[in-house]
Amino acid sequence: MDFDDLDDAIEQRLAEGDTTGLEDFMKTKKDLKEFDATKSLPPLPRGKALPAPSWETNDPDKKISLRVFVFYGPGDKADDLHAVLAGFPKYVETGVYEWPGHGERREEAPAPDLEALAQDALEAIAPALDQVCEGAEFEGAPFAFIGRSVGCQIITVLSKAILVKYGMVPCGVIMADRAPPHIPLLSAEGQDLLKTDPDKVVKAFNYEQFEMIDRNMWSNDLQYASDTRDPFFHKFDCNVMVLKGKQDVKVDELGKAQSKYKTSTLRIKGSTETFIMPVLPQTKVGALTDTIASVFAYRQSVKVSALASDGKALEGNATVPDTVLIEGLVDFQHPRYTWPHPTCIIGTGFCGTKMAMMYMVHKNENLVMIDRHDQAGGDAWLGAATKHSRVQTDFGAFNVWFGQEYTWTGDAGYGAAPGVGGREQFIKSFKGPGAPPEGSGAGTGVDYNPVRAQVIGSIQYARKEYKMEELTKYETDIVGLKIVGDPEADDRYYELTTKKLGPTGTEGTCKVSVIYHFAGAYDINRIIDYPGEDTFGGQIGYG
User: Fold this and answer.
1) How sure is the predictor about 3, in pLDDT bands with cuts at 50, 70 and 90?
2) Fewest beta carbons within 10 Å, which of 109, 119, 215, 229?
3) Is the pLDDT of residue 130 over 80?
4) SS (H, E, C) 81-97
5) In whole angstroms, how far apart are CA 102 and each of 121, 210, 217, 220?
6) Lowest-pLDDT range of 111-115, 263-267, 536-540
7) Concatenated DSSP letters for 373-424?
8) Residue 254 and residue 261 in contact, taking contact as beta carbons nearer than 8 Å
9) Position 1 pLDDT exceeds 50
10) How many CA atoms lie within 13 A of 106 on its CB side?
């Protein structure tokens, strides 16, 4: 192959959009015609990689004179940005590039590296570029790029490929939330950890949403973030706006400043879970265990102790070593502010139980529940409802497990998911008190409105499922409340005086820091069981 053949091969590859390895054969920007701004560009050629927003309509009177392509960052999808982009001027049409493995392309395999991702982006917008390149009907029409995080890296590689293939450059570029292309997001240690323990790195970026996000997607996306390029890889021949955080410089300075703290690695005994905690060189073991117990213990009564790396117990007045084994904690997953005294929930009806479920899901078991009845269910269902009383909405909308947090906790599964744990009983046809002979409830296929016995049963089952019964004082009434300390102070608390109403009740005082009071129904209905109700077979109601 001579040089002419090599040139022909290069031109052929460029025509096909293959720029891999051709960085040294860079073309210069072509002198394109000036676009006639009175003309309107056609709508963007769409596809899964450049999806149309749901609100977009074909407006024949809309005149488009600028196209803006948006490139998002890790864990995002096009649909998340469409609502924001709806605020652009009418003469601008936006297109959000959808990565393989994200959004509408979630079933596709992710790109193996940044180069492949940028090549995929080029294929996505190539039909639009073909409309504005040299010799095309809309030659010279402007287009711009907006990128965030890894999106900035995609833009850098993509812009070079466009220059090579088309001789075109964007009219402007906006970069946000990303350092220059030669600086990886993660340090060498972070990149190694992403390979060996990806969840730990992903959690650092998504602490609050960690349980809900696609962790595999995130760990793959973060690999792109550390795929670097030479600082002279590409020079933009257009205006570039770089958006940076207002406090970035201060944070960087703090990161480089010498700290008076050292770090100690805490590991739960019998587990691989660790937590790196900054401590002063003179910090004592007793202070450390008190602190982590108040932050991570599920209950106040938990005793936390510290051991040296060889398993020997550490005295409370010893200084904290570099590595500490922790005994008494389950995990480091649920940090919280711990009040001096328990949180009190008054009432074990639907709302009180739901509130307690939320606490238990987040492993905040520092609770005490108080109710005047001898069982859970609340005044409304235990006292005011008859056996024929029904929920006015169907089981799917009114059940104690409604909410995404309860689909993966407890017995797991949504309340109406057949075959899921003990909850399954509440979606079967119910033929107990208050139900017609053919049965009542979600399982009938006709009547989805549960009766009193079903509602009470589901509340009581959920309480056992989330281990609330051991935290509850039944047959107990609150007859006095005293605020101890300054009502506005964080350390103030309430002293409740309780009265025993039955054999299981409690009498005395109880200190609590927070009170939730679900009063429920205060009316007492006159309920009569009429002869023949159970065999009548028709609808029975009270007015």
Assistant:
1) very low
2) 109
3) yes
4) HHHHHCCCCCCEEEEEC
5) 13, 17, 8, 11
6) 536-540
7) SSSSSHHIIIII--TT-B-SS-TTTS-TT-SGGGSSSTT-S-TT-TT-GGGG
8) no
9) no
10) 11
**Measured on CA atoms in the order 190, 194, 195, 197, is the torsion positive or negative?**
positive
Work out the number of other CB atoms within 10 angstroms of the CB of residue 262.
Answer: 13
Count Cα neighbours of 113 within 13 Å in the Cβ-side half-sphere: 7
- Which ranges constitute the DSSP H helices of 239-302? 248-256, 285-296
Place of tokens 């549960």: 450
How far is 285 from 319, CA to CA, in rounded Å? 6
Q: For the chain, what percent of residues have pLDDT higher than 90?
A: 60
Q: Which residues contact 23 (CB under 8 A, 6 or more apart)?
A: 160, 164, 233
| CA–CA gap between residue 28 and residue 530 (Å, rounded) | 94
HSE-up (13 A, CA, CB side) for residue 401: 28
Q: Dihedral of CA 520/526/531/533: which sign? A: negative
Name the region of 504 (left: φ>0; alpha: ψ -120 to 50; beta: rest). Answer: alpha
CA angle 53, 55, 56 (to 5 degrees): 70
Please list, in sequence order, all residues whose beta carbon lies within 8 angstroms of the beta carbon of residue 502, skipping any fewer than 6 positions away: 374, 474, 475
Single out the residue of 215, 54, 58, 238 nearest to residue 146, CA to CA.
Answer: 238
CA-to-CA dists, residue 512 to 136, 254, 370, 474, angstroms = 75, 40, 12, 17
- At 426, is the secondary structure helix, strand, or coil? helix
C-alpha dist (Å) from residue 368 to 364, 463, 469, 510? 11, 13, 10, 9
Burial of 40 (0-12, 13-18, 19+ CB in 10 A): middle
Alpha helices in 410-496 (DSSP H): 452-465
Report the alpha-carbon distance of residue 112 to residue 114 in Å, rounded: 7
- Partners of 498 in beta bridges: 478, 508
Rounded to the nearest 5°, which phi and psi values hold at 69?
A: -105, 130
